[in-house]
């Protein structure tokens, strides 16, 4: 889960329910929830019910998820005036990367497109068998359809220095360079 706080909004991306909410509320009342793919609906409905947060999701998820969506976006949209949406067809349904300008640099926020797992993250038996790997990696190749490889290469068309992942440690500097060899090896 990621949280972006602006003057006008408190945005949760791919949220899960926190056991204690006072730290979140001290930052701000969630105004929006962005879902980056069908696997990350998670606890969006909880934040809608508790705070009235507006739910944002890819148009392809319109009839595929079990939460009411207020704002549907399509590839290339400037979502909430903050995030350029980058469609990832051929990966998971509705998978979207978000390009977010941090002033002098950009962050790429991803749901399941990339993983940066460490040895201690492999707590679920069989993760390696289905294709999860240590360090920076794509989603397991068994889940990527033909168009997905093109989606990964398309990511290199964007400028970003930071990679914020739903699974694994963030890469705070040099993210595009670190991912280039990985993407080009697909």
Beta-strand residue fraction: 25-35%
How far apart the termini lie comes to 27 Å
Main beta-sheet annotation: 5 strands, mixed
Strand order of the largest sheet: 1-2-3-4-5
Which secondary-structure class do the elements indicate?
alpha/beta
Number of domains: 1
What's the helix and strand layout?
Blueprint: E1 2-5, E2 10-13, H1 22-27, E3 32-35, H2 44-51, E4 54-58, E5 71-73, E6 78-79, E7 83-87, E8 96-101, E9 106-110, E10 114-117, E11 135-138, H3 146-155, E12 162-165, H4 175-184
Parallel strand pairs: 2-3, 3-4, 4-5, 9-12
Antiparallel strand pairs: 1-2, 6-7, 7-8, 8-9, 10-11
Provide structural commentary:
The chain is an alpha/beta fold and 186 residues long. The protein has one domain (2-184): Ribonuclease Z/Hydroxyacylglutathione hydrolase-like (Metallo-beta-lactamase, Chain A). It is 18% helix and 27% strand. It has helices at 22-27, 44-51, 146-155, 175-184; strands spanning 2-5, 10-13, 32-35, 54-58, 71-73, 78-79, 83-87, 96-101, 106-110, 114-117, 135-138, 162-165. A 5-stranded mixed beta sheet has the order 1-2-3-4-5, covered by helices on one side. A 5-stranded mixed beta sheet has the order 6-7-8-9-12, with no helix packed on it. A hairpin with a 4-residue loop joins strand 1 (2-5) and strand 2 (10-13). It is globular and about 45 Å long. The mean pLDDT is 90.
In short:
With 186 residues, the chain is of the alpha/beta class. It has four helices and twelve strands; from the N terminus they run E-E-H-E-H-E-E-E-E-E-E-E-E-H-E-H. Helices cover 18% and strands 27% of the residues.
